TrEMBL record:
GO terms for biological process: methylation. Belongs to the N(4)/N(6)-methyltransferase family. N(4) subfamily. This is site-specific DNA-methyltransferase (cytosine-N(4)-specific). InterPro entries: DNA_methylase_N4/N6, MeTrfase_CN4_CS, SAM-dependent_MTases_sf. One of its GO terms (molecular function) is methyltransferase activity. Keywords: DNA-binding, Methyltransferase, Restriction system, S-adenosyl-L-methionine, Transferase. PROSITE patterns: N4_MTASE (PS00093). Pfam families: N6_N4_Mtase (PF01555). The keyword S-adenosyl-L-methionine applies.
């Protein structure tokens, strides 16, 4: 079997995928290839570790019903935003104008001395006050789409973003590369409204036909404890790489604006150790047997690393667990390929050099 997803998908994928950055996300062209190859129109696809929501959105685009969940509040938010987008730019601009009125009426209530110093370090004080006010109003309105757009422009060094010079997906200040005395314009006040307006237009620049009659659900749940109420034709997901990525630490600034003050505690749950990861996968594989239809598929995209406990590669271990320990699965197909450096959020970092796709069939 040969599936094609090589080359950059950035210029061809729906711009809804670009609503907000996320580390370790599955390539959209890979998601699309797996969905269209292994499932049929009107099937129901479940992604229990939805992350950036790539599988969820590509499933909807391909005419499938979608169930997604993720324990990470940031991941659940942007997945929901992709599954329930606001698609009229004109209506959004009117909404932004109305929200701006309420934002301006709450600015005086915000005391920056109550904000953690590490958060204040990223922003011009006037900009930070506006961001906090916008987040407050958007949360009150339960506006997940505009809130996701706002988080998508939270930090970077480009003019369309809101922070001092910083990296994009992972929040690290770049004040040594861009010292304030040499780049004063990068430390000036940045109005939120005009930037969120432009972000909305970028996000809706390229949107395919989306059948709103298809079922779409997204939950902020622990995949080990959660089961969809309906049966699913396929599970397509990429479990959190064991200690290869830190989903709490690397999303800590956006998580703070979502009300998560202790990202370290969250990180222990969403960035598991090897032992925790193996337990997680074993428990999930057991639970998923009651969710999948007969002959349904479980498709896992695994960042390859070596299990020091089991003395085998991670994908080999998961196949062993599914087929020999949990049982009820047979191996249908597997494929391994290298991960090019250009796909990494942190270039030249130590991590998985390859990833393997495992296709398991429920007996």
């Amino acid at each position: 079997m040969s599936l094609e997803w090589h080359g950059s998908a950035y210029a061809s994928e729906s711009t809804l995928h670009q609503i907000s950055p996320y580390i370790g996300k599955m390539k959209t062209s890979m998601s699309k290839a797996l969905i269209t190859t292994f499932t049929n129109k009107n099937d129901t696809i479940y992604d229990p570790f939805s992350g950036s929501g790539n599988v969820a959105l590509e499933s909807w685009i391909a005419g499938r019903n979608v169930i997604a969940c993720d324990l990470n509040p940031y991941a659940a938010l942007i997945t929901k935003a992709k599954l329930f987008p606001a698609l009229s730019i004109e209506e959004l601009l009117i909404k932004i104008s109305n929200i701006d009125y309420f934002v301006n009426s709450t600015l005086h209530e915000i005391d920056l001395q109550e904000i953690p110093e590490w958060v204040r370090a990223f922003f011009n004080p006037k900009t930070l006050i506006e961001i906090i006010a916008w987040v407050k109003v958007l949360k009150r309105n339960r506006d997940i789409f505009l809130l996701s757009c706002l988080l998508g422009i939270l930090h970077h060094q480009r003019p369309g973003f809101l922070s001092y010079p910083s990296s994009h997906a992972v929040p690290y200040l770049r004040d040594k590369k861009f010292p304030q005395n040499e780049y004063p314009e990068m430390y000036e006040y940045r109005p939120v409204r005009e930037r969120i307006e432009k972000k909305v237009m970028r996000t809706l620049k390229r949107v395919p036909f989306l059948d709103v009659k298809l079922k779409r659900k997204c939950y902020q749940k622990d995949a080990v404890k959660f089961s969809p109420k309906e049966m699913v034709n396929a599970i397509i997901t990429s479990p959190p790489y064991m200690k290869q990525l830190d989903y709490g630490r690397d999303n800590r600034l956006r998580l703070w604006f979502l009300g998560i003050n202790d990202w370290k505690s969250l990180n222990t749950k969403i960035s598991p150790s090897e032992k925790q990861f193996i337990i997680l996968c074993r428990n999930c594989l057991e639970r998923w047997k009651s969710v999948l239809v007969h002959n349904g598929l479980c498709i896992l995209v695994i960042g390859d690393t070596f299990s020091s406990t089991y003395k085998m590669s991670l994908h080999e271990l998961l196949i062993h667990i599914a087929v020999n320990e949990v049982k009820g699965y047979s191996l249908e197909w597997k494929h391994t390929e290298s991960i090019p450096n250009i796909r990494r959020v942190r270039r030249n970092c130590v991590g998985s050099n390859t990833e393997t796709i495992i296709v398991l069939r429920k007996k």
